[in-house]
Amino acid sequence: MHPLIKLAISAAVITASSWLAGKNPRLAGWIIAMPLSSMLALIFAHAEHQDPVKSVAFAKGILQGVPMSLTFFVPFLFAEKLGWSFPALYAAGLGLLTTVFILTGAKF
Fold this sequence. Notes:
single chain, mainly alpha
């Protein structure tokens, strides 16, 4: 699949989700929480490489990373109590995410 087609599909998903966040933030959050990017990447990678073993390994890597990646959202759960700005919450989420990946010894 041509890289520009992949880019257009991915951009459309992100753009639609961010637009919807202004209209219905909870619905947009629910939609983006679905593994849309993972699903698209799996399809794109499999179509490009046609290697089921690599596709399965890719999916397993995603599955291993998802629980760790959820730590990014922890500061947002406490946003009201913390009273932090969005950039501070975002930075704290990145810090937690990085820390978890380092502490768990995530191997790539």
